[in-house]
């Protein structure tokens, strides 16, 4: 055990003995996400560095405090990538935070989520014990897949110290197409295209100065992308300019997101791709071929948004609270129903019996 890990382990032992809360933080790029939490800072950034990288095996193992940008730069040198496009937000994002938040970018509906690429990880539990789960190959799970359980847990179950990830080669070809169509037509078209053998990778529908626009990204073999462009039509975009827009979309920095201002909330609705137009306060920005819908709303619209998502079998998350309402009582995530609430609490009790990690980050009483 190196000195950085020894210091962090000692901090966890001391907190567990005293019942003191610890606030896990890497680069702080996702401080806004989840409930506000107090506690002594547990900084993961000393846990930095790529431990091993086998390009021929498409596997990389890195410590949790490693900057996400650093990892992606190393992968890019070998023509590889994290295909789920994890968001960077304000910069400073770390690999551990990427896994703990479990957020994926525009390609998520086509290539899978963060958890689909986690092969194994090591974490410190609430007793200060160093535990390892999974490994460096896909077929390594017997029993509960604890590695993927940590994806999206927001650090409430333990501190991730290192993680092994599956990576993929960068696609040989890419093209971005734009179409003018309203929301209902765009959703219907995306569902029709989803039934065809097309190299669909990402999509984004929104209403901007140019009117209602569907943007579609294709990735795959050169022949497949070129054939799809001819089949689909639309207005083909410059790849360099389109890449910038897709990165802005990934980090919620497109002009559409900025237009919401700082007083309204930004909601994230995860719904079935087949869901039709929802009853929302205003037209959303739609990603993931219909499966993800971003909405600007006033504080009093919260019940309406939760109801709209639940009606189609989805969920609603208060992603970013408006500045004037950042500390209000409105919960960020949908309330857990039985038996999920019992399962969550039992997992928390097993991994963090003293409740020291990110206390209240997911739910005020959890």
Provide key terms for this protein:
alpha+beta, Uridine Diphospho-n-acetylenolpyruvylglucosamine Reductase, domain 3, Alpha-Beta Plaits, 3 domains, eight-stranded antiparallel sheet, five-stranded antiparallel sheet, 11 helices, 17 strands, 28% helix, 25% strand
Can you tell me the overall shape? globular
Poorly predicted regions are none
The figure for the number of domains is 3
Task: State the helicity in percent bands.
Answer: 25-40%
Radius of gyration: 21 Å
Mean pLDDT: 93
Question: How many helical elements?
Answer: 11
Strands in their spatial order, largest beta sheet: 13-10-12-11-15-16-14-17
Spell the H/E element sequence. HEEEEHEHHEEHEEEHEEHEHHEEEHEH
CATH class of the largest domain: Alpha Beta
Proportion of residues in β-strands = 25-35%
Q: In total, how many beta strands? A: 17
CATH topology name of the largest domain: Uridine Diphospho-n-acetylenolpyruvylglucosamine Reductase, domain 3
CATH architecture designation of the largest domain: 2-Layer Sandwich
